[in-house]
Amino acid sequence: MILYNLTVNVDLDIEVEWFDWIRESHIPRVMGTGQFVDFKIYRVLVDTENEGTTYALQFFAKSLVELNCYFELYAPKLTKMQLEKFKHKHVAFGSILESVI
After folding, report:
1. Hey, what CATH class is 2-91 in?
2. Mean pLDDT of the chain
3. What's the pLDDT score for residue 67?
């Protein structure tokens, strides 16, 4: 199993709007690509250097083949949508992890 973890720090003034958009629009689009079998959303509880709230969006793929397909065919458009909607109000970075047990 491959985990694509997207960590996002969101400005407090857009947090509710961002979270609603992620839950109602972004995640259904990501899952609709057919490249992931499950997802989870976590709020990071430790303090960060930035103001705002940090979330971890986790998407589970069966293999790197599906994840790479997502990155090549779908991620550019979905990332652009998020950047345009919440420009300068969030910071994100992704990590790719492989289950070993």
Report:
1. alpha beta
2. 94
3. 97
